[in-house]
Automatic annotation (TrEMBL):
Residues 26-157 form the MgtC/SapB/SrpB/YhiD N-terminal domain. One of its GO terms (cellular component) is plasma membrane. It is found in: Cell inner membrane; Cell membrane. It comes from Rhodospirillum centenum (strain ATCC 51521 / SW). Belongs to the MgtC/SapB family. It is a multi-pass membrane protein. The chain crosses the membrane at residues 22-42, 54-73, 85-104, 111-129. InterPro entries: MgtC/SapB/SrpB/YhiD_fam, MgtC_SapB_SrpB_YhiD_N. The keyword Cell inner membrane applies. The keyword Transit peptide does not apply. Keywords: Cell inner membrane, Cell membrane, Membrane, Transmembrane, Transmembrane helix. This is Protein MgtC. It comes from the Bacteria.
Length: 170
């Protein structure tokens, strides 16, 4: 049951950003996360399409919510505005924990899964940029990340030889 002061129309729009802008930000985050996840999926990694896409979109959501709260809450009356940067800090801590788990999950004495952890971090960063509406940064950095993922594995194999099977496909 909805409280009387909330009209159904209030549930389908945001307070300060037009719904079309929110959809564009979330859609761009999903697309960029999907592109990174596709690279990991094609290499047979556990963190693939769904993980990268959901992580990127969730970071965008955290950013959008922080921005909306920033606009809604304004100042505390003492000249202290709320700090939306704390949302970025929270995303960074959460993704750090996830990435650490992925790295530790590798067995043996060798460090593994660093590239997958790095692409998850990039997916979160792309989501933060999309959530903030910084499309130029998101598209440029997403394109650079994808180009690096696609080309550096070939360069590593050609000039540095094949590592163990796990590392060669990372």
């Amino acid at each position: 049951m909805l409280p009387a002061e909330i009209a159904p129309a209030d549930l389908v729009h945001t307070a300060h950003l037009p719904l079309a802008d929110v959809a564009l930000r979330l859609g761009t985050a999903a697309l960029l996360g999907l592109m990174l996840g596709l690279n990991r999926e094609l290499r047979g990694k556990a963190a693939g399409l769904r993980t990268h896409t959901l992580l990127s979109v969730s970071a965008a959501v955290a950013t959008l919510v922080a921005l909306e709260l920033y606009y809604d809450l304004g100042s505390d009356g003492q000249g202290n505005p709320p700090d939306p940067i704390r949302a970025i800090q929270g995303v960074a801590q959460a993704i750090g924990l996830i990435c650490a788990g992925i790295i530790i999950q590798g067995r043996g004495t060798r460090v593994r899964n660093l590239t997958t952890a790095a692409t998850l971090w990039m997916a979160a960063s792309l989501g933060l940029a999309c959530g903030a509406g910084l499309y130029g940064i998101a598209l440029l950095s997403g394109g650079i990340a994808l180009a690096l993922l696609l080309t550096l594995s070939v360069v590593e194999r050609r000039f540095f030889g094949d590592k163990e099977e796990e590392d060669a496909t990372d």
